[in-house]
């Protein structure tokens, strides 16, 4: 699997307006407005990025700013300094201290487990606060 060093990269000075599709890992540090589809790959939104797009990827790591909804078949990570305004639908979610999330969270894998285990429940919860205030410090 490609690492951040071997992933495709969109630099700080690059601006893309439209649709971005691919089948390899991608690191974005510039501006994208539109949609991003990387169903089998990892998307990393770098600390300098300003993205206004709906995102579909295997894994999504956010260090910068993203406005739009995320659908991930794997994991979504909001790292320290991340600013997400949009809804998340993923199997797993990690939020570090000082990350900001304004939107709803739907952990799809939790809902699937709930249908097989009657005692387990999961709901989409609206979130509108700095993540550290809600979940504590991530280690």
Describe the structure.
The protein has 139 residues and is mostly beta strands. 10% of the residues lie in helices and 54% in strands. The protein contains two helices and 13 strands. It has helices at residues 108-116, 131-135, and strands at 8-10, 15-21, 26-28, 31-45, 50-62, 65-67, 70-72, 75-78, 83-85, 88-90, 92-95, 100-107, 125-130. Strands 5-6-9-12-10-7 form a six-stranded parallel beta barrel. It is globular and about 30 Å long. Mean pLDDT is 84; it is low at 118-123.
Oligomer: single chain
Major sheet: 6 strands, parallel, barrel
Rounded to the nearest angstrom, the distance between the terminal CA atoms is 25 Å
SSE order: EEEEEEEEEEEEHEH
Radius of gyration: 15 Å
Strand tally, please?
13
What is the arithmetic mean of pLDDT?
A: 84
In the predicted model, the low-confidence regions spanning at least 5 consecutive residues are 118-123
The strands making up the biggest β-sheet line up spatially as 5-6-9-12-10-7
Strand residue content: over 45%
Percentage of residues in helical conformation: 10-25%
SS-based class = mainly beta
Q: What would you say about this model in short?
A:
This protein has helices spanning 108-116, 131-135, and strands at 8-10, 15-21, 26-28, 31-45, 50-62, 65-67, 70-72, 75-78, 83-85, 88-90, 92-95, 100-107, 125-130. With 139 residues, the protein is mostly beta strands.
